[in-house]
Amino acid sequence: MMSDYLVYKNRRYHYFWLRDNCQCEHCRHASGQRIHETSQLNSTVRVARSHETPTGLEIVWSGDDQHRSFFSSQFLAQHCYDEESTAVIKKGDKQQLWGAALTDNIPCFDYLKVSTDDDEKCQWLNSVVTHGLAKLINVPTEPGTILKVVAQFGYVRSTNYGDLFEVLSVEKAVNLAYTPIPLSLHTDNPYRNPVPTLQLLHCLVKADRGGVTALADGFYAAEILRAEYPEEFTLLTRQKVAFKFASADAILQHKGCMIEIDPSGAVAAIRINNRSVAPFDLPFSKMLPYYRAYRQFMRILQGDACKVTLTLAAGELILFDNQRVLHGREVQAIGARHLQGCYADRDGLQSTAALLNATG
Prior knowledge:
- 25% of the residues lie in helices and 27% in strands.
- It contains nine helices and 19 strands.
- A six-stranded mixed β-sheet has the order 6-7-17-10-19-8. Strands 9-18-11-16 form a four-stranded antiparallel β-sheet.
- Helix 6 crosses helix 8.
């Protein structure tokens, strides 16, 4: 039987994949974007001849035009999809799950250094990619500075709360976040589609007492649930529930799974918010099992093995992945505690990190 792939460096590449990813000037614009239409390529394309060079692989394709392609060794290694291959981990790409042991080891960086040194900025952003969070110290306590922090890597995600929001106690609060009372671990805005993927919280004034921030790696907790309570894990990844928010200027609603997995089965997102989850609307036979699964997941998240606590001082800021890291308030804040918060999107941070990693 005629093969439909070739082998390079002990890894298999389909002919059609190679032809579709030809890097020549006729197939790729100078911007890197594909010129040809994949749907119009010959699905039974064959290699007329191929030749390994010191830097990569040359291919001449069968057909009247004898089209030529060259693939560098680096390109083929980076994009290898052979099931038997080991995934190539680019600098700053590998996730690191964490639990309570991170309490004294939260990635921490100086704002001035991040603002003036690309290597320091690269490490800061890589920490958000790998750990889902990082802390900045010595951030000026001038209101609005949080927007300048976002400008270091991307753009503010504006919502009905504005470009930024004030975390302090107000009368007739539209959100429990604007009260001093404790808040259970949660992700923000699960009632939106899409959900803001990054959140920043900047302390301007520290509370006299209390106001302790709790954090937990939802991916780590989900893996504990998967290992110890597989049926409960499956239920939370398959049954969607609704989240709602309503105020004088916004009515928002979205349904999603509390634990979202990708096609490979890896945990991709967490959606937990006790304040805004709507009454469950599930089949009768699944209602109580779902409650058991939800409660078990929350026990794991709130447990000593998962939870990290810290008290933000004035001039400290945390940046975290809002679809991975849950946050809450452990103890009622006493005194004039004042934080500012805002949202941003993960793709901007990842883009800036990728540029810095490529030049570093």
